Amino acid sequence: MVTGDALSLRRPTTSVHSVAVVGIGVLAWVATPGAEMRWIDTERSTLTVYVSATGSPREGTSGYVLEAPLAEGSLTDTDTPHLALVINVDELRVVDPGRLVADRQNVRMQLLSPEGLDAEQFSRITYHSLKIDQAETGAWFVKGELEMHGRFLPVNITVVRQGDRFTGTTTVFPTDFGIQAMRLHGDSAIVGQQVRIDFDIVLEAS
Fold first, then answer.
1. What is the spatial distance between Cα 55 and Cα 45, in angstroms, rounded to a whole number?
2. C-alpha angle 103-109-112 in degrees, rounded to nearest 5
3. Which of 1, 31, 33, 114 has the fewest CB atoms within 10 Å, counting from its CB?
4. What predicted TM-score, i.e. pTM, was given to this entire model?
């Protein structure tokens, strides 16, 4: 596990022998000589977060959809790859098209409040790989570590690689990170017992 002091990702201005990645902050790793470190294209990459909501009497209320723009990310594209991602919590956006703008803003404020993600105290979410097993079919099994709400926990992900694009999905239980499910104002549903994350990550052109 990497401590908070190492959580910083900066694009190098000169050749680099060791690179601190992730600080989502990107997490620290040391590049071996000759390793190809590639940046993730944060403009073309997407993370869509589906927050569960159960027990609501309102028809059609089954959860909330959020976008989680990547702040930073990198991949060492070698035989022993390393992946690192960073999300700034205060950039999360509720995007449910069926909800009024005011409703989306209200949900966002509550999800980022001290009763939720507590964005003021825990401003970043990070993920980095510990080991990546690659199959000939293009599937990667990523054994990694997610840092959220001040806790580091293992999260393993199956990723499909097609060239410079990586897609997949994973499920996280916020209570594992000390984030309790909540009831949002105006809705009796219990929100946030389970979160699904769909990702579509694209590397910058090499």
1. 33
2. 140
3. 33
4. 0.78
